[in-house]
Amino acid sequence: MRILILSDVHANLEALQSVLADALVRGGFQAIWCLGDLVGYGPDPSACLALLREYDLLAVAGNHDHAAIGQIDPNQFNNAAAEAARWTATQLSPEEIAFLGSLPLIATSAPFTLVHGSLRAPVWEYLLNQESALGTLNLLETQFCLVGHSHLPFLCKENRGSPDFVDFTEDQVFSLDNERLDNERWIINPGGVGQPRDQDPRPSYAIYDSREATIERHRVVYEISTTQQKMLVAGLPQHLIDRLDHGI
Ligand code: ZN
């Protein structure tokens, strides 16, 4: 079975469509795991939800999903994010709000646990350093944990209480088999689809192949200007429009 691993789609339909097309060319997939922030920032929340839901989808909630449906007060966000959250809320149907509200904070599909931010603060904590990695590893009950939220791709090895962050490079094929033999636990971030923040504007995603026991990470190009034009028409903050050019 091949599973597409996506995070932080952020209502960017062109980015999502490009990722789906690229994954199909690379051998396809039978299901999607989505690590939260399906909506927020981008101009196409409903279309992105509809497209994702065409597939066998296992998704967890992110902070922007909760803000869009009133479970988080947008005032807890910075100005641009709050403005986008309020706009997103006006775009969603009651059914879409119910769907986002139904997303769990944590999901498990052995040997993986899926969460947006971290296991100790599922929609809030950015897992970016040893301390936060340890916090999640202490709660992790499977061998691998998939996280998003930072929009930064990485691999993090448990390494006997001293978690070790290493690059998850473009087109890298990470073998789970070797790690299984060593019984090492890993935290994996596939990078962001709809608003990458690693100084590269190209959407980033991963594919898990259960038979090969691999996770590979890829990037795709998409027509950024199309998304930006929609954001302009929607009246979304200029800062959010500009940052798509730079991957920040
Ligand atoms: Zn996000």
CATH level-two architecture of the domain at 2-104 and 168-181 and 189-243: 4-Layer Sandwich
Main beta sheet strand tally, sense and closure: 6 strands, mixed
Q: Termini distance?
A: 33 Å
Overall pLDDT, averaged?
96
- Low-confidence segments, given as residue ranges, are none
What's the SSE pattern?
EHEHEHHHEEHEEEEHEEEHH
CATH topology of the domain at 2-104 and 168-181 and 189-243: Purple Acid Phosphatase, chain A, domain 2
| Relative helix content | 25-40%
| Annotated CATH homologous superfamily of the domain at 2-104 and 168-181 and 189-243 | Metallo-dependent phosphatases
The neighbouring-strand order within the major sheet is 3-2-1-11-12-9
Strand content: 15-25%
The backbone outline, from C-alpha atoms, is globular
> How many individual β-strands?
12
- The structure class reads alpha/beta
* Total of helices: 9
User: What is the CATH C-level name of the domain at 2-104 and 168-181 and 189-243?
Assistant: Alpha Beta
Cα-atom radius of gyration = 17 Å
Instruction: Give the names of the bound compounds.
Output: zinc ion
Describe the structure.
The model has no long low-confidence stretch (mean pLDDT 96). The strands form 2 sheets. Strands 3-2-1-11-12-9 form a 6-stranded mixed beta sheet. It has a 6-stranded mixed beta sheet with strand order 4-5-6-10-7-8, covered by helices on one side. The protein has a domain at 2-104 and 168-181 and 189-243: Purple Acid Phosphatase, chain A, domain 2 (4-Layer Sandwich). With 248 residues, the protein is an alpha/beta fold. 34% of the residues lie in helices and 20% in strands. Strand 2 (31-34), helix 2 (45-52) and strand 3 (57-59) form a beta-alpha-beta unit. It contains 9 helices and 12 strands. The longest helix has 13 residues, at 13-25. The protein has helices at residues 13-25, 45-52, 63-68, 79-91, 94-102, 130-137, 176-182, 224-234, 238-246; strands at 2-6, 31-34, 57-59, 106-109, 112-115, 144-146, 154-157, 164-166, 173-175, 186-189, 204-209, 214-219. Zinc ion (ZN) binds next to loops. Zinc ion binds next to loops.
